[in-house]
Amino acid sequence: MSGKLKVYGLTGRSGSGKSTVLGMLSQMGVAVLDCDAIVREIETPGHDCFNELVESYTPQIITPEGKLDRRKLADIAFASREETDRLNHIVHKHVLAELERRFVQLEKAGHSYCVVEAPQLFESGLDRRCDSVVLVSSAEGSMKRRIMDRDGLDAERADRRLAAQLSEAEFMKRCGIVIENNGDLEDLFMKATELKKHFDTESETEEKLMSEEKKTKGQQLEEKLFAKNETAIKTYGKENRDKIEEYSRGYMDFMNRSKTEREFAHNAADFLKANGFTEFQPGKKYSAGDRICWLNHNKSVVAAVIGTRPLQDGMLIAAAHIDSPRIDIRPHPLYESEDIALFKTHYYGGIKNYQWVTMPLALHGVVSRKDGEVVNIVIGEDDDDPIFYISDLLPHLAGKVQGSRTSREVISAEELNIILGTEPYDDEKVKEPVKLQVLNVLNEKYGITEEDFISAELEIVPAMKARFVGFDKTLIAAYGHDDKICGYTSMTALAELKAPEKTCVLILADKEEIGSIGNTGMESDMLRNFTAFLCEPHGVMPEMVYVNSKCLSADVSAAFDPTFPMVHERMNAPYLNRGPAVSKYLGSGGKGGSNDAHAEYVGDLRRMWDEAGVPWQLTELGKLDEGGGGTVAKFISRLGIDTIDIGVPLLSMHSPYELAASLDLYSMDRAVSAFFRNM
């Protein structure tokens, strides 16, 4: 070896294709050295090698221009073994000296290895400088034909050149790696690609060993015993860059079409059906490999892939919620004030009111009209659509009204009024002409009257699309990451399953942001009913299934924010780009109201994810007594199911435009997938 630089020799008989392989490796970014090119360089006037050749042979080998006549020199050198040896002795020592100089240059330039092509690798003694030698082998007839075509030789001279070289059998004995070049260029390129992968792996291993040798005993012990919690973007992110971007774009497209729990549930059902899932039929006896999907009251989803093992062995469950903090329209919402039509609203979930003002808003939802028809409404998402708006005070006049208010009260709940329009209906006898005009527009397009608002579910959401964030596009801003991001990743992980051992279940629940109450929320009997329907044809008690089941309560967590470090405990906080955040417990204060996962379950998950190569981090939510939170975990664990929280860390959680890392998004999918496959 040459210091830190690993040297790989590439050799073969004339016409074998070794130069082609070298060129392919060079295109892939490998540092290469061509001994034939070096020979041509040092055999030019002014080099020591040229001078020695002139002294050793007759002046006949020099052209009238003073250059080397290579054909005449070759005729002399290949005439006998003795002449060949004499030429090689002169050239080889100068080539080796030049190689040494170039090895030093490559090492200084930061290369960890290089590949040297040398037809005379063994004869020159270069093999003793190589860590490994690769032979490019080809059929005798193919080599002879390439020599004749390339060098313009007749058959006899081509035979003589091959005969003067080591035999193919001798090359085979001396080389550790052999590449067969008897196919087309595409086949040879694939083999060259595999060769580069082999070089890269060997080089990385060598570098790691050398690094270990340099570490002190304390450093080695530190590395062995200390926990590792570091960014995965340099390793996992780099290795999976293209997959992460492709997956992120699919997620962003889905999110732009799924801003409400109804939209997400219907789009999820469509996605699953497109991936081979069929509508769940309670009481039907399902078999291994069956894929079923249940759309529950249009706002939650339960899906499953039936496993090869019996149901009483338990299920593997991933449960997320698909509702997000928002603003709802009240049952009697529409009013007119000072020639402006507005909606009265009722916020849903934990929001900071001031974050929702002076931003583009869209109206989504359904209206069940008096005549029984249900009308779907989406206004504000298309470029040609109008948007909606909540006003705020200008700073010049806000001092007395808002100056003494807390941040939560800067905009009160009763001030979250949606501006709808200002155009009056053209009739002077109408008392509220602007309100009437709004109703007139809604009636003409949707057949809605004011009374129909009492049987409507209309939601105000941000009218913004999901977008990449930052110069490097490693972050994604979107409305509803909480908790649709975990719903999406759990859904895609289930969809890719084929024949798992245990039955794998996906739950996309509603109402989590307001306590999980209601028949589409996790506190309902949704899971109990589904399990009972599944078990009944098999004569299995659902309780036996529960006690042998495992669950990932898939919900987001609050990532460490360097702008607000005071609310986090740095050692236990979730961080962006370190994979999904696993929380053994949540709750508040002294773990109040939390599901505290057992150590044995955490240990099983830890080993499983580490073996799968999935980045993840064990975390807590904020400093003690700073606040707290909960998930659907407590509703699932009370059935006797081992349950733990896991989710994508977010910045600006519960805001109208939350921030997630694309690496964490993709890693969450991989974590749930590994859970379904290997737990």
Structure description:
Helices cover 37% and strands 20% of the residues. The two termini are 45 Å apart. The model has no long low-confidence stretch (mean pLDDT 92). The protein folds into 3 domains: 6-210, Rossmann fold (3-Layer(aba) Sandwich); 236-324 and 479-678, 3-Layer(aba) Sandwich (Aminopeptidase), CATH 3.40.630.10; 326-462, Aminopeptidase i, Domain 2, CATH 2.30.250.10. The chain has 22 helices and 27 strands. The relative contact order is 0.10. It is an alpha/beta fold.
Summarize the structure in short.
37% of the residues lie in helices and 20% in strands. The protein is an alpha/beta fold and 679 residues long.
Question: What's the helix and strand layout?
Answer:
Layout: E1 6-11, H1 18-27, E2 32-34, H2 35-42, H3 48-56, H4 70-77, H5 81-108, E3 113-117, H6 121-124, E4 132-137, H7 140-151, H8 155-163, H9 168-174, E5 177-180, H10 185-214, H11 217-225, H12 236-239, H13 241-256, H14 261-274, E6 278-279, E7 291-296, E8 300-305, E9 315-321, E10 326-337, E11 340-348, E12 361-368, E13 374-379, H15 399-402, E14 418-421, H16 433-446, E15 456-462, E16 467-469, E17 475-478, H17 481-495, E18 503-509, H18 526-535, H19 542-547, E19 550-554, E20 557-558, E21 581-583, E22 587-588, H20 599-612, E23 617-618, E24 628-629, H21 633-637, E25 642-647, E26 649-651, E27 658-661, H22 662-678
Parallel strand pairs: 1-3, 1-4, 2-3, 4-5, 6-7, 9-18, 9-19, 19-25, 20-26, 21-23
Antiparallel strand pairs: 7-8, 8-18, 10-11, 10-15, 11-14, 12-13, 12-15, 16-17, 17-27, 21-25, 22-24, 26-27
